[in-house]
Amino acid sequence: MYHFDWLQRHAERTPYKLAVVDVHSGRQFNYAQFNERANRLAAFLKDELGLEAGDRVSILAQNSSDYFEALFACGKMGAILNTLNWRLAAPELEYILNDCSPKALIYEPEFSETVDVLRPKIDCQHYVVIGDEAPEGKWAYEEALAAGSADGVKSPRLTYDDTWAILYTSGTTGRPKGAQVTYGNFFYNAIGIGMAVDLTSQDVNLNVLPTFHAGGLGLYAAPTFHVGGTVIVMRAFDPARFLRVIDEWQVTVILLVPAIYLMLAQYPEFDKADLSSVRSWGSGGSALPPSVVEQFASKNVIIQQGFGMTETGPTVFLITREDAVRKAGSVGKPVMHTEVRILDRDGNELGPNEVGELCVRGGNVTTGYWNRPQATAETIVDGWLHSGDAARYDDEGFYTIVDRWKDMFISGGENVYPAEVE
User: Residue 104: which of 155, 148, 156 has the closest Cα?
Assistant: First the structure.
């Protein structure tokens, strides 16, 4: 199976369909325009900067439509996008940049001081500043697009095992590791979560999660682009603007993290907002307290709890709308084309109501960690990714994430998990 250009196909079939709206800048692009901009960036990277398939392009920026142009431009020419967490300090970014060795760094002007600190410490040949202007010796993003051909480049023959992006995990132990997110991972995530929430080309997704994170790229932005829907990109969460955008653009699908739901619950104007257009509310990133599920359900907002990892594209589970309140606290059942099992420390598969390590297998699972063969071998065994999360499933087959597997300790012969004690 070979990679196909999602934007190009939509530009051919539905060129005038609205693809993306950037709330911060006010820009809007249909699929023909969006595809052309990604084509121009791909041509610029290849023809002007001399990048080839497999070269890395790092991006240090907050949410914008430009971020997704960079993602799809890399896909068109076979380069690998490395998304940088802009919340990290310069020494942390220095480690990541030296680990993945990008040939080009795209960044927003607000991070200029950080880039100036990093520049003598990393081996990066080209710098592109998002916007219309750039200091001498660097390219302005819009200038770069103008220099690239609207026809793009001849796409290399890429398989679904080729890496499209490198996302560095936060790293609970030691240095962060760069998870290789392949074209297949993006595709199978689009299918898995897309089927779980019935995504179609008529859907409008509001994306407010940070795009340097797997959630910001994959829930539900990339799957919405895959089906030819519309993505509304917010730079950062603000409750008042968030609610206005939902109403203005008649948003239909949203995935948030529990912290945002808690902020919404405390926002005085929340009860007055018109949320009737939203047919699917999702939650991920951490456990959503059952009390919050019930609180929102009383307002006729049904939140579907899910679970995923950077290494799984990211979706593994999403509970159905019908079971979301009845089984509050559970992440539901695996999405399509994803297998899971629970193992004890000896590798034995466990049954209902037994806590063990969650293991995942499927087309959404990473091929491994960049430059970390030992970590890859320890994490992926016989095709199964060992998540490091403790989980169980009940007699109905609903899964619950209990805690981090490595956090478990033994007291009086019993397994004890700090999260359950809390």
Answer: 148
Token output for 262 = 């808690």
Q: Are 310 and 214 in contact (CB under 8 A)?
A: yes
> Can you tell me the distance from the alpha carbon of 327 to that of 228, in angstroms, rounded to the nearest whole number?
32
Backbone phi and psi for residue 309, each to the nearest 5 degrees, phi listed first: -140, 155
> Are residues 335 and 195 in contact, defined by beta-carbon separation less than 8 angstroms?
yes
How far is 59 from 130, CA to CA, in rounded Å? Answer: 10
pLDDT averaged per 10 residues, the chain (length 422) = 85 98 98 98 98 98 98 98 96 97 98 97 97 92 98 93 94 79 98 98 98 96 98 97 98 97 95 96 94 94 97 98 97 98 96 97 98 96 96 98 69 48 51
As a whole number of angstroms, the distance between CA 379 and CA 180 comes to 13
> Which residue is associated with the tokens 């942390």?
92
CA distance 119 to 138: 12
What residue has token string 């480049």? 153
Residues 6+ apart with CB under 8 A from 223: 189, 190, 193, 194, 199
Q: Answer whether the bond into residue 314 is a cis peptide, omega within 30°.
A: yes
- CA–CA dist 103, 50 (Å, integer): 9
pLDDT of 175 reads 85
The residue among 304, 252, 244, 241 whose CA lies nearest residue 278 is 252
Q: Output the DSSP codes for 95-122.
A: HHHHHH--SEEEE-GGGHHHHHHHGGGS
Tokens 């993945």 identify what position?
100
Quick one: tokens of 228? 């030819």
Considering the entire predicted model, what is its pTM? 0.94
The residue type found at 259 is: A
Identify whether 290 is preceded by a cis peptide bond (ω within 30 of 0): no
Q: What CA–CA distance (Å, rounded) separates 44 from 79? A: 12
User: Alpha helices of 86-182 — where are they, by DSSP H?
Assistant: 90-100, 112-118, 141-147
Query: What pLDDT does residue 136 have?
Result: 87
Is the CB of residue 369 less than 8 Å from the CB of residue 375? yes
CA distance 191 to 187: 6
Residues 58, 100: Cα–Cα separation, whole Å: 9
Q: Say if residues 100 and 166 touch (Cβ distance below 8 Å).
A: yes
- C-alpha of 329 from chain center: 22
pLDDT attached to residue 404 = 80
Whole-number pLDDT of residue 418: 59
60 bridge partner residues: 107
Residues 224 and 231: beta-carbon distance below 8 Å: yes
